[in-house]
Amino acid sequence: MSETITVRVKLFAAFQEAIAESEIELTLPPHTAVEKIYDRLLSQYPNLSTQLEPWRSLTRYAVNLEFAEPETLLQNGDEVALIPPVSGG
């Protein structure tokens, strides 16, 4: 069994603007819950903590194009999307 998994994270709206990427790849321990992606982003981009932390409780997660609960466990090769609330007019 592998000691790490790799997931592709799609970034939208505030996340994409803050990180200046539309997609990143993360290496995580096996059995990581999707909500831990948020912690990883804040540790990997500490200068963005103030900008991204307010979105934590409002962000929805999708794994492999399906909405997922925060405690959903990730598998190697999963595609994760961080979906902040959107507004429009």
UniProtKB/TrEMBL annotation:
Keywords: Nucleotide-binding. SUPFAM superfamilies: MoaD/ThiS (SSF54285). It comes from Tumidithrix elongata BACA0141. Pfam families: ThiS. CDD domains: Ubl_MoaD. One of its GO terms (cellular component) is molybdopterin adenylyltransferase complex. One of its GO terms (molecular function) is nucleotide binding. This is Molybdopterin synthase sulfur carrier subunit. It comes from the Bacteria. GO terms for biological process: Mo-molybdopterin cofactor biosynthetic process. InterPro entries: Beta-grasp_dom_sf (IPR012675), MOCS2A (IPR044672), Mopterin_synth/thiamin_S_b (IPR016155), ThiS/MoaD-like (IPR003749). Belongs to the MoaD family.
